[in-house]
Amino acid sequence: MASPMVKPKLTKSKSQMTIKEVKQMSEIAENRQLVVPGEVLAEGMDYLPGDGAYRNQKNILSSTLGLVEFKGRLVKVIPLNGKYMPKKDDPVIGIVKEVGYNKWTLDLNGPYDAFMLVGDASDRYIDTNRDKLASIFGVGDAVICQIKKIDENLAVFVTARGPGLRKLHEGRIIHVKAAKIPRIIGKSASMVKMIKEFTGTRMFVGQNGIIWVDGGDEALAVEAVRKIEAEAHVPGLTDRMKAFLSEKTGKTFEEIEASRPSETPSTGARGFQPPVREAREFRENAGPSGEDDLFQGESE
User: Fold this and answer.
1) C-alpha distances in angstroms, 155 versus 27, 99, 285?
2) Dihedral (C-alpha) 159, 163, 166, 170: value to the nearest 10 degrees?
3) Do 268 and 274 touch, CB atoms closer than 8 A?
4) Of 61, 75, 130, 207, which has the most beta carbons under 10 Å away?
5) Same domain for 225 and 248
């Protein structure tokens, strides 16, 4: 008796595959995996290298030590170390280091200082012949500002004109590695929001690794930030932070969620729509409800 005919197994070409099938075939590293320089992250031409990654023939490799992140076809590596590199529209905290005739020089916690011109310091007119610039921003003052532009010579200019941009008079300033800022903020600002709600503090997290904390249990908020900074590369960070803050405060995460006011869409303080760069600090980055909150009313 003739043996039954066996149909040959057909192999799909990539053009016939679904996106999910291509991803499963091409992806080497796992999302949020710790990778080292030179490590292969993905194979084939289906992915595009982003920050911290580069292409070598058909492979995408890491150029730094960090956490790999896949966003659609884009592959990038969030570095665990490194200085802050300014980008236009970044919300930052600058420390005034020099007062000039018509400008201030600010330390941004990175390789480049920033300059704030008189016209970018306030919404009111400043007369340089009459007004003493040091009375507006003095050496050592901390200022919430925004990267306005970076010129062709890599000179960085910031502005303090805009809702919530101002000199800080109270609270405390802490410095962290700028590379850890995405983890401190969390997805849709969830991590920084959780810290604020558990500790009752107001916070502003600058993209440059300088953080302002004020009110409530400042010491616990700082301890939480330091814990995130130290454990940013370890999986399960969100659950560990919930447990840590619950143990320290005696509150459960469910109690915190239940106490949240109902959120309604808003364009922010005084109708301002902040520049959108993954809607980071300008959205859930100020503090518990209060008239002094920066960009209050916004939610992710």
Assistant:
1) 39, 17, 27
2) -150
3) yes
4) 75
5) yes
Residue 151 sits in a domain whose CATH number is: 2.40.50.140
CB contact at 8 A, 145 and 159: yes
Domain-embedded: residue 291: no
* Residue 37 structural domain: 29-41+48-80
Does any domain span residue 230?
A: yes
* 300 residues of the chain, pLDDT tens digit each: 554 444 333 334 444 445 444 444 466 878 878 888 999 999 988 899 998 899 999 999 999 888 888 888 899 887 877 778 899 999 999 999 999 989 999 999 988 899 999 999 998 888 887 788 999 999 999 999 999 999 988 899 999 999 999 999 999 999 999 989 999 999 899 999 999 999 999 999 999 999 999 999 999 999 999 999 999 888 899 999 999 999 999 999 898 888 887 654 433 333 333 443 433 444 334 444 333 334 322 233
* Residue 56 contacts residue 117 (beta carbons within 8 Å): no
| β partners of residue 68 | 77
Task: Indicate whether 262 belongs to any domain.
Answer: yes
Domain assignment present for residue 3? The answer is no
CATH code at position 203: 3.30.1370.10
Count of the separate structural domains present in the chain: 3
Computed from CA positions of residues 278, 209, 55, 20, in that sequence, does the dihedral angle turn out positive or negative?
negative
Residues in the chain: 300
Q: Give the integer Cα–Cα distance in Å for 9 and 7.
A: 6
Residues with Cβ within 8 Å of residue 297, at least 6 apart in sequence: 264, 266, 268, 269
- Determine how many CB atoms are found less than 10 A away from the CB of residue 264: 7
Judging by DSSP bridges, how do beta strands 103-107 and 113-117 pair with one another?
A: antiparallel
Angstrom distance (rounded) from CA 176 to CA 211: 8
pTM above 0.90, yes or no: no
